[in-house]
Amino acid sequence: MSIMKRISLIFRSKANKALDRAEDPRETLDYSYQRQLDLLSKVRRGVADVATSRKRVELQVVQLEQQSAKLQDQAEKAIQMGREDLAREALTRKSGLNGQITELKAQHAQLQGEEEKLTLAQQRLQAKVEAFRTRKETIKATYTAAEAQTRINEAMSGIGEEMGDVGMAIQRAEDKTAQMQARAGAIDELIASGALDDASAINAGDDITRELEAMSSQADVELELARLKGTAIPAAQQPEAIEAPEPGEILAEEPAKQEAASDATKDA
Amino acid sequence: MIVRILGEGQFDVAEHALDRLNELDATLEAAVEAGDEAAFAGALAALLDGVRTAGVAHPLDSLDDSDLILPPSDATLDQVRQMLTEDGLIPG
After folding, report:
1. CATH number assigned to the domain comprising residue A186
2. Which residue from A minimizes the CA distance to B48?
């Protein structure tokens, strides 16, 4: 049998099994309607959850882009001071960040897609639930229990199919969002730890440095380093012009720490 | 004939379009049997596009059963295999 037919049969039999049956078939209508309303609020919550995740990812992209710009700035200043080791560290971190940003943007697009799909699913279900409610009232008013059975079956199986479909859509959106939330949590922790934004804090944790190096593209770092060294040569001839570093910048670090930093990166 | 694409809704498809859809369905089935991911993705996209092109949206407020039900556009081969077993299809 064809794929289309097999899936249709299995889907329909599962959807029918999922429906509640009451002794008086007219009560079945009320049970089912209640479940439809429950599902509607579930899909509304689903839309809200996905939107929350999407906004979180948007915020992270903004934060990481700011940090990336800051690291670029730090690398330029480090080169001007002749500190290639610090510039390399900053660029390594920046390259790692850029990888994260690309991934986050892909996730953002995916979440946006899920949000749109769920919103449409909600509209479809809403229309069907409304139609079911009208049909339910008509059936209850017009028919005896015995007469109602056929009409109830028709209405029930039509709505059951939609409910099965929407149930799956919610499930899929939840699965996708859960994966992304685990990742987003890890990125929030990295941002909170400050490990991503300060290239002078090399000794803060070697495991973090190693992780950042693993994420970065070494080729990108070398390329950009060479480019910076090229552009920085004229500036390096007048070091007095950049002698007043701002607080928190790598240049503000005391020489002893920079020495240690230099040793730490020599092997990298 | 009413065809549902899961995650997208129902379409009214004219009978004369069914031959073409059955061909696409056979291609999809072969890809699933063979476990060929690339062929599967192409065949599923072609089949769903065929339904969207040949069909028009069925009224949202109808309570009609679909005659045929198709996997969602982002379904993987494994997910479709799961749909073909008793356990996989409807959560809960």
Report:
1. 1.20.1270
2. A4
What digits encode the pLDDT tens for the residues A72-111? 988 888 888 888 888 888 898 899 889 989 999 999 999 9
Q: Are B62 and A131 in contact (CB under 8 A)?
A: yes
- The total number of structural domains in chain B stands at 1
Q: How far is B91 from chain A (nearest CA, A)?
A: 7
> For chain A, what is the domain count?
1
Inspect the interface and report whether the beta carbons of B91 and A5 lie closer than 8 Å.
Answer: no
Query: Which residue among A165, A167, A172 places its CB closest to the CB of B4?
Result: A165
Q: Is residue B40 part of a domain?
A: yes
Chain position carrying tokens 């073409």: B20
Whether residue A258 lies inside any domain: the answer is: no
Determine the distance in angstroms separating the CA of A182 from the nearest CA of chain B, rounded to an integer.
22
In this prediction the ipTM stands at 0.83
The reply to whether B88 falls in a domain is no
Domain that holds residue B71: 2-83
CB contact under 8 A, A128 and B61: yes
pLDDT tier at B89 (50, 70, 90 boundaries)? very low
Strand partners, B69: B4
Tokens matching residue A41: 């609020």
pLDDT tens figures, A204-247: 444 545 555 666 677 778 888 888 888 755 544 444 444 444 44
Query: Strand, coil or helix: what is A79?
Result: helix
Q: CB distance A2–B22 less than 8 Å?
A: yes
- Average pLDDT over every residue of B21-32: 91
Residue A10 maps to a domain: no
Q: Which of A124, A72, A77 has its CA nearest to residue A101? A: A72
In a domain, A184, yes or no: yes
In a domain, A267, yes or no: no
Q: Give the span between the Cα atoms of A38 and A45, in whole angstroms.
A: 11
pTM, two decimals, is: 0.72
Asked if B69 and A171 come within 8 Å (Cβ–Cβ), the reply is no
